[in-house]
Amino acid sequence: MNTKKELFDKLDGQQIEKFTITNDHDVSVSAITFGATLEEFNVPGPDGKPTNILVTVPTSEELMKNQFFCQAIGRTAGRISNGTFKINGKAYHVDQNEGTTTLHGGPHGFNTQIWDGAFDGDTIVFTKHINSSDDSFPGNIDVKITFSLNNDNELTVTFSGKSDADTLFNPTQHMYFNLSDGGDINGHSLQINADHYLELNSNKTPSGKKVAVDDTPYDFRDGQNLKVGIADMKAEVGHSYDEVFEINDHQDDEPIAKLSDPETGRSVSISSKRNALVVFTPDDLSGSNFMIGKGGPYMAIALEAQNLPDTPNHDDFGDATLPAGEEKTYSIKYKVEF
Ligand code: FUC
Any catalytic annotation for residue 326? Predict the structure, then answer.
């Protein structure tokens, strides 16, 4: 196991650092202090050259354009309807950034912060104290995000939070994958351990209704080719995937989803104890011509393990609160095979 710290770039005069861990199989992960963003998850390609299975952008400035490329998301992943919710009967209103909706922690979420970075052994540790006045959520919160890699080619991301007042904590890493060698994701296949998905309103907030996936393009239980799935979605629903799947009850070590590319033989299995996975297949990223070699139609699939979004506004969505003084830790594991 090897670690390396270097300068990534500068943002508003501040140094952005890049931390890299490389394991004994030449698998490496690199994270930068701006947005606690994962810039690289490299596997050895056929010629031994490092091949990034993430779709990211190469500078902090371009990350600011806000497609959330592989960035840390918090305090709350997904959408909060009208930026409004209650905790223990008390109503809160937080800053909105998508019409009347608060998306991915709002305009001052984790992805907009410069984190303090350090190695603890060969684990990358990012910490940040965020005041309530910084992001408008209740409570001043201490957040720790860690990235570790082992010799079984497993990347584990953990998020810990502790606040001085009751708040919400539903973080994730906004991973965009592409397992090909420069092609698109159409040939990839996706398996998800989900019997239900959420019905969404026209502004993509949940209506509250959970819908069975049976006989729909949302049925990924036995694995589904993405090109077929996207074509069926377009024919039946009128758009491609930007969906919330409710993950079935499962053993802790049982992956919730697996993305595979039969052409390159690469796959990523995702493990998480949370009850949701968001799947987003952007139709066209060519407008973002700052993509690292991978701009264009269906060049990335975002997979975001999290709690069901808009949690406090729906009785049966679970619990995304972080009670005052309590520490909560969530982890997501990505096992890559190649
Ligand atoms: C996903 C989607 C959103 C958004 C974002 C970048 O979480 O649900 O629609 O576009 O990614």
Answer: no
- 57 backbone dihedrals φ, ψ, rounded to 5°: -115, 155
**pLDDT tens column, 44-74:** 998 889 999 999 888 999 899 878 999 999 9
Q: Does residue 62 carry a catalytic annotation?
A: no
- Cα radius of gyration rounded to whole Å, the chain: 19
How many angstroms does the Cα of residue 278 sit away from the middle of ligand 1? Answer: 8
Q: Which atom of ligand 1 is nearest to the CA of 304?
A: 7
- pTM over cut 0.85: yes
Q: How far is the CA of 104 from the centre of ligand 1 (A)?
A: 8
* Amino acid at residue number 297: P
**Beta carbons within 8 Å of 68's beta carbon, 6+ residues apart:** 104, 111, 174, 302
Identity of the residue numbered 141: I
Cα(179) to ligand 1 centroid in Å equals 20
Beta bridge partners of 329: 160
**pLDDT tens digits along 6-44:** 999 999 999 999 999 999 999 999 999 999 999 999 999
